[in-house]
Amino acid sequence: MIPLQRWTGIALLIYLLLHIRTIHTLSEGPQAFDRALAVFRHPLFKLGEVALLATVIAHAANGLTLTLFDLGYGHRARRRIRMVAAVAGGALFLAGGVPLFLGGVMGR
């Protein structure tokens, strides 16, 4: 089974490639760029932004905990550190995800 860090890394790489492709449409003229941006205004893409936020937070929180463990900190409190990272990540996701969802998907 592939660990969370690898899955989120692959998802972020796919997002990065899509982002680069979208920015590349600037070289094709303003109309092409406007067409690309119009696609991203669709509610499905807004849900994708919420998923991207969750992916970035999960990747960052897991990366920080792995770095702490690699540096020798927290081996005895591994479960507690992971719980703190999960709660902090969840709070951060709610702080950013709820406005993204309400504004982009629900149109409020």
Task: Give an overview of the whole structure.
There is one protein chain. It is built from four helices and no strands. It has 108 residues and is mainly α. The relative contact order is 0.12. The chain is 81% helix and 0% strand.
CA-CA gap between termini: 40 Å
Strand fraction band?
Answer: under 5%
The percent of residues in helical segments reads over 70%
Radius of gyration, whole Å: 17 Å
Q: Helix- and strand-based class?
A: mainly alpha
List segments where confidence is low: pLDDT < 50 over at least 5 consecutive residues. none
Mean pLDDT: 87
Q: How many helices?
A: 4
Order of SSEs, N→C? Answer: HHHH
Overall spatial form: elongated
Beta strand count: 0
- Main sheet properties: none
Helices and strands, with pairings:
Blueprint: H1 4-24, H2 30-39, H3 43-70, H4 78-105
Helix pairs in contact: 1-3, 3-4
Condensed summary:
The chain is mainly α and about 110 residues long. The chain contains 4 helices and no strands.
List keywords for this structure.
single chain, mainly alpha, elongated, 108 residues
